[in-house]
User: What shape does this take?
Amino acid sequence: MKSRAAAADRRHFDSRGHKGAAQRRERIAARLFTGVLYVCCLVFLLVLGGLAITLLWKSRLSLATFGPEFLWSSEWDPVHGRFGAAPFLYGTMVSSLLALLLAGSIGLLAGVFLAEFAPRRLGAALGAMIELLAAVPSIVYGLWGLFVLAPFVGGWLGPALQAAFGFLPIFQGPIYGVSMLTAALVLSVMIVPTIAAITRDLIAATPMRYREASLALGATRWETIAKVLIPEVRGGIFGACMLALGRALGETIATTMVIGNRPAIAASLLAPGYTVASVIANEFTEATSDLYLSALIELGLILLLISLLVVGIGRLMLRLVVR
Amino acid sequence: MGVLSIPARRRIASALWTAAAALCACGVAAVLLLVLGYILREGFAALSPSFFVRLPRPVGVPGGGIGNGIVGSAITVAIAALMAFPAGIFVGIYAGVYAHRRLAQGLSFLADVLAGVPSIAIGIYAYILLVIPFRGFSAVSASFALAVLMMPLVIRTTEGALQGVPRELREAATALGATDYRVTGKVLLAAARPGIVTGLLLAVARITGETAPLLFTAFGNQFWEFDPTKPMAELPLQIFTYAISPYRDWHRQAWGGALVLIAAVFLLSLAARLSFRLLRRGAAEP
Assistant: This one.
């Protein structure tokens, strides 16, 4: 390192003789560097803008043919060229919100434990495992969901739920292994690390004096968490939930493998369903007519807009909290 | 005395909630062990040396492999990295060095939002841009989709690494009369290098397992293919095809493929962590 510094010095002294030329070179290099920075920023913005514009452009045929009715029509008939998004939107919404409900409550509690109660070693180990859980590719979750979780839901969990809560419409009817419930369970496993990790970081970053003040007033440790710390970071937790929801909405492969892929709206969570992302994955390469392809691309556009909204809100909340 | 003065009911509630929280944290970790345990058990049964080098075989013919999928995935991911790294790093530099500027903050926020866009939508994007005009599926179109998925990750980690550089370092360099360009090139980037390299490796790890955008870009291929302008076999696609097939032998191969894929992803994540430590140690001793 020392010799490198000396070499730099030598260069510097050498260049003294031709100060004008060296300075010009330096100025050109600086300009070039700034130019490259701006060009790359422009490329990034073009890629991002192109995403929405190309999807909008390629779905124009479907947009013109079906108009807004596309959103609530539940017909999906490629043979006669009738397309509606309702069953897919329903499946995406129900599976994702159910997953968020499960993962939100479990992830929140897990994050609180990691931040407030876990001994240092245990906290580090559990934290690393939760991070690994987030790194597992979705195809692996799909495989596990299809061969392990689906038989479990079909043979054990489904019947148990029906026996206990069979009076509710959401647990009535025939029980399938590949179902809305299975998809929601797999999705909740996939999004729980996001919620747990962000909650842990948010709680850990709250000032110690809040805890001290609350405990000094006679609150228990849990009351301190539930009534002081969590309200303090609720914006951030909401943001984390939105990010997790965004991931669940857009998840494709794992859902496709376990949801059953039946384009019908069923009240029962134990019945198969279909999601926007799954129908694109299954039918995109088989779309035989222009209208068919255009309808699938419009589904992609709808998915894009919903997740942009959800993720945008989530990121905004998290940025406001961090500041 | 303080504890004794709290009514028992509230103390018990506190203890119960704490236990529930512990249970949740351990439960989440247990799910990881459950998934990994299954992959290891089922996957190892399918592994053999020939599994890594052979082509897939038709149903009923034993001894098929995933060699072409491994090679195809490696080629596709490598091209994606070549596309995403330069642009991502430079945007990240802009966002990190000029963090006070409106444009930089906007870019950073947009990168965050892009990171949350469904990968299937980005697959459609690649299909429209690169598959339709060239009249055919290709590995390059898959690489483009993966590059779009990687770019926000590279941007954000580069930005974060640069913002983590102590302000004094930057002020000292500026006080010595260095221009913005010199400060960035010689001081900030040198100090942020471990974080940037780690971010690049993590981005690769993150997209290596992506499946959805490959369905209608790389498309898959039963044979060896090294030309990126042609449809190419991809490991995640092979796992998907095998898993949803009705054949027991193919299911076994899907588990084997999943084990290989998850090992590759975890090794890349591990490499990211190790490189951070190694590079930081290297930077710490002048």
